[in-house]
Amino acid sequence: MYENFTELRKDCFACQKCPLSETRTNLVFGVGNETADILFVGEGPGENEDLQGEPFVGKAGKLLDKYLEVIDLDRNKNVYIANIVKCRPPQNRDPLEDEQEACINWLREQTKLIKPKIIVCLGRIAAQRLISPDFKVTRQHGQFIKKGNILFMGTFHPAALLRNEAQKADALADFQNLREKIKELEIKL
Ligand code: SF4
């Protein structure tokens, strides 16, 4: 249990709990407001993220920033963005079960410090890890599910939207639902 982000970040940056530590350029800890009410979680860093040390940069990141902007959210202001695994899986493959298991505690500690009211899972890997192992993004995207004190919602991964333009309208609707939920919960942005 960590008291603050400085200690958590320091220990996380030294992590060698799984083999992804051997191939990373940079560990990608997370970015955003450490007291945000909304936390976004993806699966893991890709090539650009590994090079820059920040989650969701490059084309997919730009698309995410656009969706955030539409509903008055901003990674530099009122959300936090992190991943299930902090180091890039080679060739952008899905993080293995063992890698996710080794890494998930860092996200748990981040979540304890941030204390978000809403967690948005970006893509299947994050939704299956945080919401339900059988979560199907195409069927269950946009639905809010309460677990403990936190509302969870799963939606499309921005990289998947770049490959499948047809899902962009559904993703936008999910973000608009999120905006409604933020209003309903009277969350100050
Ligand atoms: S992916 Fe996670 S568990 Fe593996 S080395 Fe990186 S920080 Fe540690």
Question: How does this model look, in words?
Answer:
By secondary structure, this protein is α/β, with parallel strands linked by helices. The chain has one domain: Uracil-DNA Glycosylase, subunit E (3-Layer(aba) Sandwich). Helices cover 44% and strands 14% of the residues. The protein is built from 9 helices and 6 strands, in the order ααββααβαβααββαα. It has a 6-stranded mixed β-sheet with strand order 1-3-2-4-6-5, sandwiched between helices. It is globular and about 40 Å long. The two termini are 27 Å apart. The model has no long low-confidence stretch (mean pLDDT 97). The protein binds iron/sulfur cluster. Iron/sulfur cluster (SF4) binds next to α2 and α5.
